[in-house]
Design a protein that fits this description.
7-stranded mixed beta sheet; 18 helices
Length: 456
């Protein structure tokens, strides 16, 4: 999901927004870059992985004397992002120094200061201790995980090696395979840095947080959203419930950020303010439609049900019992937890959520999430049999998964006792696809399990 939001483009007046977008377009034209047709701003270009184009466009824009100090800091943040992800470390650090010199007067919670701090950590970080940058790390116990010997467990080591080659060839930053609760493959690429973004896999985590609050007696599955969010007038008037939001049937359409009236949650600093202002497109329960905004509505709802910051609740009730010591929810520029994407985590922590689901809500023998909630989460919903409570579901073989942008996915195969986690932080044009029917066949080979013959 979007790592940066060019918040000013979304929040300023129509006239100033038009002027700012025009300056971006002029900057782009100077360096021979066509403005992004879907959004026409640096955020959209960064999101599309067009970092080499963002760098000169941002530099030209920064030379505009009409650019305000705040807009300049936001532009510098986009420049730092592009240079970091383009691998131009010295350019990123140069832009970081300029940002530090010119933007220190803005509040610490300004979205661009938060984002630049996260990038500073990324620029200064190294692979996790003991992890090779170019090869598989030696398997070892740690973080509640136990290492396993693939051959001794009866796995096909040649198929496992082909899976690792697929991970590398598909542009992944890291991959992990666990069999019966033991890690049998763990690979980290040269670009792996922690913390890593979960992308939209966070949605499934949000579903677990909802289940914990239900188990705590703080909220009911069929509670009207209006009980907790009366200011969301559209939902209050149409009877949207927690169940609707968990099953993507709340009546909100998918938004693409293509202009006024189509603002998407990834493009704004105060995400909760946006989602609480949205109208319904249809009656709740009428249709399944994947909506980042619907998932983000769970942020204020669950936080009010918890009676404290959702980031704290998640850390205490979910992450601590799972020994996810390197994981936290991301906050937006207004201090609100993201519930639709991009928690910060490590590969091993990322894989624990699927192992938890595979084991009926238990981690190392401890019941963390009620088994009944896990079963409910993995039950096909009426409007989409491939979706449960923010979990993706499949058959032949049975699989339940968290899924995110760039195949940042975690899959659990209960029939095989297998968990497969894959993470990727940025697009890599030209890489081979990872998630194909052939990948499922390959994993079946790993566990020496025949698959049904392909249907004619």
């Amino acid at each position: 999901m979007t790592r940066f939001s060019f918040a000013s483009v979304r929040s300023c007046t129509p006239a100033s927004r038009a002027a700012l977008v025009a300056r971006v377009a002029v900057a782009a034209s100077i360096v021979g870059v066509a403005p992004a047709a879907e959004a026409q701003d640096l955020m959209a270009m960064n999101r599309a992985g067009r970092w080499a184009e963002v760098i000169p466009a941002a530099e030209v824009l920064l030379r505009d004397p009409a650019l305000s100090a705040e807009r300049a800091c936001e532009t510098r943040a986009e420049l730092i992002h592009a240079a970091t992800y383009a691998g131009r470390v010295e350019k990123a650090r140069e832009a970081m120094r300029a940002f530090d010199a010119r933007c220190a007067s803005f509040p610490q919670d300004a979205w661009f200061r938060r984002e630049v701090q996260a990038l500073a950590e990324r620029l200064g970080s190294a692979p996790a201790a003991g992890m090779s940058r170019t090869a598989s790390a030696p398997l070892a116990d740690g973080g509640g995980w136990r290492a396993g010997n693939a051959a001794a467990l009866g796995l096909d080591t040649a198929a496992l090696a082909r899976h690792r080659a697929l991970c590398e060839g598909s542009g992944a930053d890291a991959c992990l395979v666990a069999f019966r609760g033991r890690i049998v493959q763990e690979w980290y690429g040269p670009e792996y840095r922690y913390p890593m973004p979960t992308m939209s896999s966070m949605k499934s985590w949000t579903g677990l947080l909802a289940g914990l609050l239900v188990a705590d007696g703080r909220i009911g599955l069929d509670d009207p959203v209006a009980r907790w969010l009366p200011e969301w007038r559209a939902g209050a008037g149409r009877g949207v419930t927690l169940r609707h939001l968990l099953t993507m049937t709340g009546g909100l359409r998918r938004r693409w950020g293509r202009g006024p009236g189509d603002e998407m949650v990834g493009g704004v600093s105060d995400k909760n303010a946006l989602v609480l202002s949205l109208p319904l497109e249809r009656a709740p329960g009428e249709r399944w439609e994947y909506s980042n905004e619907g998932a983000q509505l769970l942020s204020p709802l669950l936080e009010r049900a918890a009676g404290r910051p959702l980031r704290e609740y998640a850390a205490e009730r979910l992450f601590a019992p799972l020994q996810m010591d390197s994981t936290s929810l991301r906050l937006d520029g207004a201090g609100h937890a993201w519930t639709y994407a991009d928690a910060r985590t490590t590969l091993r922590d990322f894989a624990k959520i699927c192992q938890l689901a595979l084991d009926g809500g238990r981690w190392n023998g401890r019941q963390v999430v009620p088994e009944a909630w896990i079963r409910a989460s993995l039950t096909p919903s009426p409007r989409n049999p491939a979706y449960g409570f923010l979990w993706w579901l499949g058959t032949d073989p049975t699989v339940y998964a968290t899924r995110g942008y760039l195949d940042t996915d975690c899959e659990a195969y209960p029939e095989w006792g297998l968990v497969v986690a894959r993470m990727q932080a940025r697009p890599r044009p030209g890489a081979q696809p990872y998630r194909t029917p052939g990948t499922t066949r390959l994993l079946a080979e790993v566990v020496r399990h025949p698959l049904p013959a392909p249907r004619p």
